[in-house]
Design brief:
heterodimer; A: mainly alpha; B: 0% strand
Amino acid sequence: MDTATIVLWIIAIAFGTYAWRRRDGSLKKGGELAWKTTRQNAALLVIAFFIVGYIDLLSPTELIQTWIGPQSGWKGIFLAEGLGMLLPGGPYVVFPLIAVLYQSGASLSAVVTLTTSWATLAFLTVSFELPFMGWRFTLIRWGLGLCIPLIAGGVTLLITA
Amino acid sequence: MRKYWIHLVLILVTLTLAGLAFQQGGFSFVYEGILRGASLIFHEIPLLVAAFLTAGFLQALVKKEMVTRWLGEESGFKGILLACLGGGLIPGGPYAYYPIANALLKSGAGVGVLVAFVTAKNLWSVSRLPLEIAILGSRVTIFRFSITFLIPPVMGVVASRLFGPMIDKIRRGIP
C-alpha cells in the first residue's frame, strides 16, 4: 500500500469517526452517499482504467525521444506541451520517462514544459475529470490551463538563455 | 442517451487504443492492454474506496451553507487560497481527488475555488515533490515549482471572474 492510500484512509477514518460521534445519522448518510457516487461512476472508472492500461502498453518512449531530441527554444516548448498531454500514467511512470529525455539532451525549458503540461493537461486525467466534473468545468479548467506550461517553459527559457 | 455521451467518448477512445494495440502486436497486445487495465483497477481499489468514503462523509458532514460561505462563489480570494492549500496537501491520483472535487461542487463550491483546487493539486502536490526531486533532480523541480507557484490562485481568480456565474449550469451538468 502506498503513502497516498494510507493518508487517504486516515482522512476517511477521521471523517468517519467524527460522523459516528455526532450520532445524527451522518455516518450512515455518508456511507450511502459514497455508495451512490461509486455506483454512478463505476462503469466510467473501469473504462478510464482500461484507457490507462492501453496507453501504458503503447507508451511510445523512443518516438517521444526523437521528437523532442536535443532541440530547445520555443519550438521545443510547444512540442513539449503537446507531448505532455499524451504522457501516460502517474508520477512513477512519467518522471523516469522525462528523466531519460533530459539525460539524452532535451533542454531544461522543454523538460519543465513537459512536466508542467503532464501535470495540468494530461488527457488521462481528463478521462477522470469528465465523469466527475462534467464537460463545462473540464473545458474551462483545461482551456485556461493551456497557457500554464507555456509560461513555465517560457520563463525557464528566458532565465537560462 | 445524453446522459451517456461521456461513456461513449471514453469507450471510443478505448476502442481506438485497442485498435492501435492490435496493429502493433495482434490480439495478444489487445489482451495485454485489458490485463494491465484490470490489474490497475485491483491495485487501486483500496485508494478508490478511501476516496469515495472521504467524498461521501464530506458531503454528509459539511453543511451546504458552510461550503457556500467558505468555498462558494462569494467566498472570494480567501476561498481560493483555502482550496489551493487543500489541493496541494491532498494525496492520490485523479481517481482520488476528482470524487472529492465532485463532492465539493455538489455541496456549493464555486468555479474559481474548484479550478484552484485542481490546479494546486497538479502544481503544488506536496506528496509528489520528493519523488520529483529524486528522479528529475532538484534543478528541474526548483525551476518548475517556483515558476508555477503563483499559478493556482491566479487561475482560480481568472476562472471565478470569467466563469463564476456559470456555476449553476456546471452543477446541473454533472451526472
